[in-house]
Amino acid sequence: MESSAAIELAKHILMTFGLILAIGTLSGFLAQKIKVPDVAVFLLVGILIGPGVTGLVNIKAESAVNQIILIFGSCYILFDGGASLRLKILKEVFITITVLSTVGVLITAVITAVAAYYVFSIPPIVALLLASTIASTDPATLVPVFKQVRIKDRVAQTVMSESAFNDAIGAILTFAVLGIAMGKEEFSMGAALADLARQAILGFLVGGALGWLSALLIAHVKFGFLQEYAPVVTLMAVIGAYLGADKLAASGFMAVFVFGIVMGNKDAFGFRMKDRDQEKMEDFVLTTAFVMRMFIFLLLGAQVDFDLMNRYLLGGVVVVAVFMLVARPVTVFLCALPDRRAKWSLKEILFMCWTRETGVIPGALAGLLMGMGAPEARLIASVTFIAILMTILIQATTTKWLARKLGLLLEE
User: Fold this and answer.
1) How buried is residue 231: exposed, middle or buried, by Cβ count under 10 Å (0-12/13-18/19+)?
2) Residues in Cβ contact with 372 at an 8 Å cutoff, skipping those fewer than 6 apart
3) Which residues, other chains included, contact 47 with Cβ-Cβ below 8 Å and sequence gap of 6+?
4) What is the CATH number of domain 2-405?
């Protein structure tokens, strides 16, 4: 009987996956025809196929299946984003990336918290908890957008790198504030900074070590005996980088991103693959990243809780508007303008002010807060979903238009 129930469940999940693949493929084709980033179309279509509308797809946010998709999908998209970056460009803008990923998250959180405090009349610590949850940008959204919309390299790579590196900061800040809000601990700036440094360093080391080892096994003249199996090696290493860093209580997402950077720049470390094998690996990565993107954003749309959102809709829209139109521009100007090494132009800064989508990571944090019984968790989850919908549907869809207006678009 148990076996039969398990088989029926497996068939149901398999049918749901097939449906997502079919709908996602058509949605991707539609996005290509109307020339908008596919993540925005996936999100809208996900809402249509979810329980709130047609009910075609119903995978609970807290289910193991959904968590596997979110974790692995986000990791693989991060790896793909890291592999597309170039060390030469990162050296030029690393100061801006570092400041945006650290101080920038704090600036965004403080400004947004002030707005939430006045709009919802909630305690300051709860307002800061809400703001911390949505303060980090989302690599799972931004990497695909810049894969489809060709922007000036150093601008695109700065925004993508910021989105990858600031996840750890956002998560640490969220749980530090949560501890205070629930009366479990007192905030210590020194302890928080030490924990942040430890997570960053360990994540960097794990990702760098696995990147170098993988490059050795697939691209070394003498030891590259797995060159024909490069796609499989990348899959194993992405999982290994995330779980290895997580086991050490470090940032798994940072480890995966650094792994991607090393793999994408393996020539700089003395490794080189045969052209045929390199093309095969790139095709595999491109297809796998598309499938992961499809699953993540269709499911994210399908899990939108309309009843929860409606309760705080007006206030949420006001807070997110301040978040997008005040907090982000102030953050970018304060963090990027002083970087004399990068010599940012006003047009580049304005573009970065607009480009900061919210997505999978803040959504996951909001879900964790709900499960932990955090103060005003339903309010926080509602505003988080409003931020996801507004930033993806408004900012992601206008990225190409703005880049063209500012003269930053490389090609049609």
Assistant:
1) middle
2) 178
3) 53, 301, 302, 304
4) 1.20.1530.20
Closest listed residue to residue 95, CA positions, set 258, 338, 268: 338
> Is the sign of the CA dihedral 115, 116, 121, 122 positive or negative?
negative
Rounded Cα–Cα distance for residues 264 and 79 (Å):
9
Overall average pLDDT of the 297-318 stretch: 86
CA terminus-to-terminus distance, the chain: 58
pTM (2 d.p.): 0.82
Lowest mean pLDDT among 59-68, 105-114, 204-213, 397-406: 59-68
User: Which amino acid would we find at residue 148?
Assistant: Q
* Rounded Cα–Cα distance for residues 115 and 76 (Å): 35
**Which distant-in-sequence residues (6+ apart) come within 8 Å of 217 by Cβ?**
223, 224, 225, 226, 233
Q: How confident is the model at residue 315 (pLDDT cuts 50, 70, 90)?
A: very high
Q: pLDDT confidence of 267, banded at 50, 70, 90?
A: confident
Per-residue pLDDT tens digits for 223-244: 888 888 889 999 999 999 999 9
Answer yes or no: are the C-beta atoms of 301 and 47 closer than 8 Å: yes
Report the candidate in 180, 178, 281 with the shortest Cα–Cα distance to residue 224: 281
Domain extent listing, the chain: 2-405
